[in-house]
Amino acid sequence: MYWVTPRHLAGDDGALAERIGDLLTGMGWRLWPTSRHTLLYVSPDELRGAEWILASYPFELGGLPVAWQLSARPHSDSALTEWNAYFTTGVPHEALADLLIALDTRDVPDTGFGEPEAVLAALVAQGWMRDVDRPTTTATDPGFASSVSLEELPPLIQDADPRPDLVGWQAWAEPVLGAPYLWCTSFSASVPHDLVAVFAASLASPVPVPRRTLPDVAQERLTVVRRD
């Protein structure tokens, strides 16, 4: 077992399904296996959802399979979700867990009142740097291995807003330039900025995380202390 920093390069320890599934169950979310071989978790008020979709392999982000899809809707009887967020394998489960806790505790999951600056402020407070060319939309970690950016949405990202050319928060880790990504995430246009800020703050946290395994692509960028 190791203590590892930085968190955004620590990987998911091969336990992304188990850690998040245990968290959701502990918060009282109900679980349904689906005919698509996915695991669907729904909050008690039926306004929030989280689905482990890796087995169905619906699509990729940055060449990586999407593993978790989060969603929110305005009414329990609404057939359509207001927003969706997608997370590939490799994303640190601590950051996704903090996002889910924030989603679970907010009164109105489908609406936010923050501004995009909240996301960048959360990152800068943890030592990340604003992009010189795009200081109001993009921040990068001090090692230039990970970025969070407000950009045009990639294909297949679903949102209740039907307008074309929408932008949403995208995040990724590329420990070695030109090598495969470690993880990618995509938030649709209507995801509240304050929720994205929670994810960003946790992602950039300097607090070490425990790991049993280390991602090969990032090992040279990690500070590792063996736990006794």
From TrEMBL:
DUF317 domain span: 43-107, 160-209
Species this protein is from: Streptomyces dysideae
Protein name in the entry: SPDY domain containing protein
InterPro entries in the record: DUF317_SPDY
